[in-house]
TrEMBL record:
This is Family with sequence similarity 169 member B. It comes from Pygocentrus nattereri. InterPro entries: FAM169 (IPR029625).
Length: 247
């Protein structure tokens, strides 16, 4: 059997079919059959779903008109799409050269939203909920909601979609006085935060870059970080004094 992927044809053989674990460490042992190129097993080109092979691009599409905008991940198929976006699309296919950041495989209980546009999954974000376990080893729980991952596919960037997801995160957690963004924060995400906080001044004292579980000693105000990155050289000592006295 041969699966055609755009202009690439890949023969289905025992040597280029593998299994992908759908959930992260400690999750249920559910896996997906994946077809990869003969030369590189990281280059996944198709998944075996509903009794047939589907090219990755087709899995990310929908014919449902109700799927538009940011929708909470609920069904098994939506979990598969979240996995594809975080591990295959970002992790391999659209990862910038020299990029060292990666996303851990989403857990079975991960709270996330997929961004749908023109019948296609074009991005997502995930949240570590307040009170959820940081990992399966320490027993520590997050002390605040944390925006853990944000991703927009290459073709759809520079359209304000990451900004839309950050705003959705902040407004959906309206009852929380403090919110976190998981550290490290990428340069591009700082740019998104800067745009958002420039027009939403009321959020400047609310948004923090954090390490798990989010104790005050593990938080650093995002707006303050942005100001420090753009400070004039002559004001260095003054800003350092302000930073020292922030919680």
């Amino acid at each position: 059997m041969t699966v055609a992927v755009v202009f690439l044809q890949v023969h289905v053989t025992q040597d280029n079919v593998g299994r992908l674990m759908l959930f992260g460490e400690g999750g249920p042992p559910h896996s997906l059959l994946a077809l990869h190129t003969p030369a590189d097993e990281t280059q996944v080109v198709a998944l075996y779903l509903h009794g047939k092979w589907w090219p990755i691009g087709e899995v990310l599409k929908t014919s449902s008109k109700s799927r538009h905008g940011l929708l909470i991940v609920q069904s098994v198929m939506e979990r598969v799409i979240l996995f594809l976006l975080s591990q295959i699309i970002f992790g391999v296919m659209e990862k910038p050269l020299g990029e060292s950041m990666y996303f851990s495989a989403p857990s079975a209980l991960e709270y996330g939203k997929i961004l749908w546009q023109d019948g296609e999954a074009v991005g997502f974000y995930t949240i570590k909920k307040k009170g959820s376990l940081c990992d399966g080893c320490t027993g520590q729980s997050y002390l605040l909601p944390v925006l853990d991952t944000v991703f927009v596919r290459t073709h759809w960037r520079r359209n304000g979609l990451a900004l839309q997801m950050l705003q959705d995160f902040c407004t959906s957690m309206s009852k929380e006085s403090v919110l976190g963004i998981s550290r490290p924060v990428s340069t591009s995400m700082y740019g998104v935060c800067k745009k958002y906080l420039e027009t939403h001044k009321e959020q400047r004292e609310r948004l923090y870059e954090v390490d798990a579980p989010g104790e005050w000693s593990q938080r650093r105000n995002v707006w303050l970080n942005i100001q420090l990155q753009h400070r004039p050289a002559h004001s260095e000592s003054f800003i350092a004094f302000i930073d020292f006295h922030c919680p």
